[in-house]
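queue> pop job 88
queue> type: inverse folding (structure -> sequence)
queue> payload:
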């Protein structure tokens, strides 16, 4: 009997698209071996089943129960290499996605896994930091700080204990790439953590994982156990310990110092900086807090060299960026591309343009603190400098597209209400400013505001930007102020008519 090896994603988004239902149906045929892989991130094609063919993998997309007989008979399907959404990407951090089984350590190793750690272990810590300097890798958590610089500070600070903390709190609306890494390629994250630990001299690591990600936490714990059993956690003469801790369920706990407070068992309140965590972080010890993607990129940088990584992208933004396209587009999903494509190109080439019958009104990049771009401003290159010059942020690479049915005043109100709910309350501009801004937006929405209220809202926004302690309060005015700038008529049309 010939056994057909079929591949079906086990990712949470794929399950939401119906992957588990298909898996159940495939339990019965005895001539089928089903492998639950990570997802390729082309969520608009899911559920998708793949099968080995002499020329590579063949995929059946958007399949229903009725299509299974064709899959089992090997009829139809399209070559994975003929899907432009997948072939046009440059996959570095997401190279294994859709291909490997997340917890199959041998598969990870057979695709070059742990080669980056091997290279790092053969180098002096200072040489690793130098390699990162050459790579010009910047943190992927939002602030885009050069990775080598934090590591050098942690390395050079004397302490009885140092820590590595993975920020896996992923709170931005429209982002899910950290979850995908944890669910889909957990050994890559572990490898990145170990490289960092060796470079700074840490003996303990934590993964602060968003509480709403139970599958990610489960896969990570299982992968840590497997890595331990395979003695891969033996580092610099001791066993490196990695603990997965569930987050407290608050957006601000993604801010690195609030995260450390939470990890120490207290309420997630932002700490004043300096001192920076790299010098005095968890339990006042040098701590590298970095995003999941930052750690997950390290194995490739170390295995292939900093110069190779720096050859991708643009002058100030080297390497690749994981973009998560969502909202009113035809083809939502994750793409990894070198920095430099324009927002419009990404939305057209990967997003497939607007959903049937929808017209683009605005695009928000970077989560609830990100600026809103009107359709006319989409020719901006996706890189840190261009976004900073436009008063925008790339944040965690989430792109949400709004259509022309969107009420921009209500959208602005929604984001400010989010900040007022999530503010940690430590500083006045954010604690009070976000509530007053929300109230003003509610007043405008009710038709009870005057032109002077718009001026007051803008003034309040400027104060929050200039004086908030962290980026929650400091960035919260941006979606509101960009909505006011680009959709001014919508705001003025809601003002109270003067008699
Ligand atoms: C309100 C707020 C929420 C944040 N949430 C996250 C998050 O969910 N994940 C993340 O990696 N960084 C988040 N950050 C950024 C972190 O403070 C920090 O810059 C980041 O973890 C550093 O990692 P990197 O060096 O890899 O960029 C947030 C910042 C703020 C102000
Ligand atoms: S800006 Fe907001 S979230 Fe940040 S420290 Fe101040 S009150 Fe807390």
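queue> result:
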């Amino acid at each position: 009997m010939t056994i057909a090896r079929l591949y079906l994603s086990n990712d949470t988004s794929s399950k939401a698209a119906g992957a588990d239902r298909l898996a159940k149906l495939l339990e019965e045929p005895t001539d089928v071996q089903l492998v639950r892989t990570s997802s390729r991130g082309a969520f608009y094609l899911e559920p998708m089943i793949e099968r080995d063919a002499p020329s590579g993998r063949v995929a059946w997309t958007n399949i229903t129960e009725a299509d299974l007989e064709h899959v089992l008979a090997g009829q139809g399907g399209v070559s994975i290499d003929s899907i432009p959404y997948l072939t046009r990407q440059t996959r570095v951090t997401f190279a294994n996605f859709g291909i490997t089984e997340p917890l199959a350590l041998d598969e990870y190793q057979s695709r070059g896994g742990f080669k980056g750690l091997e290279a790092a272990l053969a180098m002096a810590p200072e040489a690793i930091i130098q390699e990162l300097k050459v790579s010009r890798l910047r943190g992927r958590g939002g602030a885009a700080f050069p990775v080598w610089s934090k590591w050098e500070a942690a390395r050079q600070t004397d302490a009885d204990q140092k820590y590595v903390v993975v920020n896996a709190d992923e709170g931005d609306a429209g982002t899910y790439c950290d979850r995908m890494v944890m669910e889909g390629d957990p050994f890559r994250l572990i490898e990145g953590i170990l490289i960092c630990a060796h470079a700074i001299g840490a003996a303990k690591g934590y993964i602060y994982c968003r509480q709403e990600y139970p599958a990610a936490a489960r896969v990570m714990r299982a992968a840590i156990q497997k890595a331990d059993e395979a003695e891969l956690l033996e580092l610099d003469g001791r066993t490196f310990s990695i603990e997965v801790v569930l987050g407290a369920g608050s957006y601000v706990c993604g801010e690195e110092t609030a995260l450390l407070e939470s990890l120490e068992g207290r309420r997630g309140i932002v700490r004043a900086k300096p001192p920076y965590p790299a010098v005095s972080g968890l339990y006042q010890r040098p701590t590298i807090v970095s995003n999941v993607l930052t750690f997950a990129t390290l194995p490739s940088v170390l295995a292939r060299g900093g110069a190779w990584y720096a050859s991708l992208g643009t002058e100030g933004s080297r390497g690749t960026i994981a973009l998560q396209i969502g909202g009113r587009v035809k083809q939502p999903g994750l793409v990894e591309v070198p920095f430099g494509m324009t927002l419009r190109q990404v939305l057209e080439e990967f997003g497939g343009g607007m959903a049937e019958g929808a017209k683009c009104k605005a695009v928000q990049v970077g989560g609830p603190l990100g600026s809103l771009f009107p359709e006319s401003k989409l020719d901006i290159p996706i890189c840190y400098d261009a976004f900073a010059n436009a008063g925008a942020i790339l944040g965690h690479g989430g792109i949400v597209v709004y259509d022309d049915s969107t009420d921009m005043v209500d959208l602005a109100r929604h984001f400010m209400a989010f900040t007022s709910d999530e503010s940690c309350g430590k500083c006045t501009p954010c604690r009070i400013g976000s509530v007053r801004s929300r109230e003003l937006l509610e007043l405008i929405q009710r038709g009870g505001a005057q032109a002077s209220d718009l001026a007051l809202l803008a003034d309040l926004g400027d104060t929050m930007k200039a004086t908030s302690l962290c980026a929650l309060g400091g960035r919260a005015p941006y979606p509101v102020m960009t909505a006011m700038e680009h959709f001014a008529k919508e705001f003025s049309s809601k003002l109270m008519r003067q008699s």
